[in-house]
Amino acid sequence: MTTTPVYQGVTAIEVRVFAALGQQVLVLADDRIGVNLEVDGSLVGDTTYLALPNPGLSVLQTCSSTDFGPYGWREQTYANVLNQTQVDNLRIFIARQQTGLVSDAIRVAQAEVIVTYTDPPSLEQSAYRIYQNTDSPSPGTPLQATNTVADVPQGSDFRVRIGTTVSGEDWSVGYGSNKLQYTAKNDTSCATSSGWTDVSSLGAIQWKDNASVADGVSIAADVNDPATSGTKIYQQYRESNDFTNPVSIDALEVAIWDFSLSATTVEPGMSYCLRIVNVDGSINVSHSYYVEIIATGEYGVAFVDEASVEVLAPSVAFSGASVSTSGCQLTTGVLGTSAEKLRISNDVATNGWSVSISATDGQASQWTSGDEKYDFNDLTGSPPGCSDGADADTTAGYLGVAPLAGQITSKPGCSTTGISLGSSAGFEQGITDAITLATASSVADRFCYWDITDIVLQQQIPSTVPAGSYGLDMTITITAF
Ligand SMILES: [Ca+2]
Ligand SMILES: [Ca+2]
Ligand SMILES: [Ca+2]
How many CA atoms are closer than 13 Å to the CA of 307, on its beta-carbon side? Predict the structure, then answer.
């Protein structure tokens, strides 16, 4: 048997028969017909057609049992709200009361049930906004404006409020079941991306259980709600699938949900899309705005070898010099070689960054070999660095850095646009304690790295420095703008 869905439910039922009466002699309203629905094995509606006066359904009367008609409809209307199974199994019950002459007769030509129901609504995911998480039914600080892609750090929690505009029919409470899905954006748009997965307790984007907020709690208006073109009707805070509407929504109004999520194992640089879909096919859901986040990571500096393996104890060897009593000597080193590339990575900052070098132990540092020392930040003398100056130490010496001599290579697929090498400079105690090696402007790529080699270092070694292997610890620092 083919059944017809009643979607959002039955609003009215009418059962009726098309019947005629033939009555032999006297026209009395004593021959009658009853028509009822049988639901779940029982007659429902007015079944008292045998009583007098008869509230049932009398047929037309004529003056001869051989002269039937005319036929007419006799009906009963029900206000009962039946469920789908009851509607699928409806039966019509027809009865007659024949009183008086036995040749009085009733004929039934047709019987039918007219079920009036409400079609399903249509939903359009029409607005969203991404926020920081809070342990509250209201979301935290907005991360972006309405319908705007937001950065979400890897491993962080976040919230999304999504609006679905109802159209066609009003949306009755509890009709249909829906769920939230995500996918990595693997095509030009979320709409054409594949691999959608239900949000669960596993995967790149997971549900976040806020301890103080029960899953499914009612939500209210928030000052930072997504902007919508229709009246917002607030539904639920969700930490799980599936969900339906606890509050009815008229057509052209917008159902608002608040989803608590965690970007647990997202990959920095990858975009992720979120959408509401219908679970059981009961509602058509379209998407004019998919929720979209960009997963961010960290930024940093390191030295790597040719296989991109980090060099844990990088160093720069300077050219050798012999002990001199006649004057100062210039030695040279190279920061960044093919075996020790200075790698700068940025998986987060949007406004650019700066990388600088300074002495690990601060401006009072000196080159040291056992008890012997000489200076790295004293410009005094001619040439500079050949005499001790006004700084608190008693040694001479001067280290110059020439970043402009360097070479920049970007990660494959990235560019060096917006990346600049620093100007040549020397350390000068209390004045120039850090020297910029490279900077990036806001037009520089994100989710990229850049390898820098061939930055020239020159150290002026003063005269009469005893023989030794002198070292100076330096630190390279990246700062996001
Ligand atoms: Ca919770
Ligand atoms: Ca000094
Ligand atoms: Ca000095």
Answer: 2
